[in-house]
Amino acid sequence: MVPPFFLPGVRVPLSTTDVTPLNRGSAEIGDAWQRLVRQRRLYTVITVVAIVAALCGSLWFANDSNAGHFFERAPHILDFLSWLIPKDWNDVWRALFDLPNVNGSKTEEFNFADGRVYLFGSSVYFPEYFYLMLTTINIALTSTLIGFIFAVPLSFLAARNMSPSNWLRIPVKRIAELLRAFPEIVIAGLFAAILSIGPLAAIIAVGLHCIGALTKLFYEVVENAEMGPDEGLRAVGATWLTRMRFGTLPQVLPNFMSYALLRLEINVRASTIIGAVGGGGIGQELKLSISRGFGAKTLALILLLFVTIFVIDQISGWLRVKLVGEQAFKFVP
Questions:
Q1: Looking at the domain assignment, is residue 6 inside a domain?
Q2: What pLDDT digit, counting tens, does each position of 19-62 carry?
Q3: Are residues 263 and 169 in the same domain?
Q4: Same domain, 303 and 180
Q5: DSSP assignment string, 77-118
Q6: Looking at the domain assignment, is residue 121 inside a domain?
Q7: Fewest Cβ atoms nearer than 10 Å: which of 52, 229, 255, 309?
């Protein structure tokens, strides 16, 4: 005789002993989920309270450090816009291209033509701000080149899968961390005191920081490289240098160039900031214009700096896509 629960269309209820463990397990999972939700909400509240307390404490410290005038002066924080707007907007273009002032003023604020850089003693000149911008770009290019040259060999020594010895890998990584630990402006201030102000101190500061930053990025790329070519070269008795040159470097070089171009964008901005501490270039002139309240000159410098960085970013982004490939920048769902 066939049992009733094997007959088609016949439904036999499960016993209580069969249902209870399933319900009990679901209840335990639900309780555990609720506890996690409550715990996460508690942590969120604690984090928000801590951030608000830190913000209030920093505002109190700022007010106390400014002899109680921080909150009084807060509504006037954008008052500098009043002097930044020139009376004649054409003065911005005159300052940018060193054109003569037509207003008749002989003050330093309007002596636009005095900064011309004449080429080879002729009447052809190069606008002062463009010349300073080229100085800033040269600082960034030289620093990036120095960082790239040193970071490539250091990255192979610091990579876990390529380093010939842990005794060499660990000190190299620590040196790279030390080089990128200090901001460029701090290093530039130190070398400006030693070497005097000028582009040389800026190149050394940005270059040292660039070595540390690129070494970090490069050795992470090396550690993700395909090990097949290296193992094949090792099997035929190739030296470590040969394995790096012909087995790994061709794989990682496009990514190396992509990171170097990205670092070039960062170095242009860093070189501008370093000019404020005597590093030369357009940053130094921008600091002087702001401190003296020269609105037209300040706007001309900001405009030139914005256009230059925008153009460099676009060119660098285009080159990185060509080097790495468009597929590396596409979203894969």
A1: no
A2: 456 577 677 888 888 889 999 999 999 999 999 999 888 878 77
A3: yes
A4: yes
A5: TTTTHHHHS-SSTHHHHHHHHTPPPSS---SGGG-GGGG-EE
A6: no
A7: 52
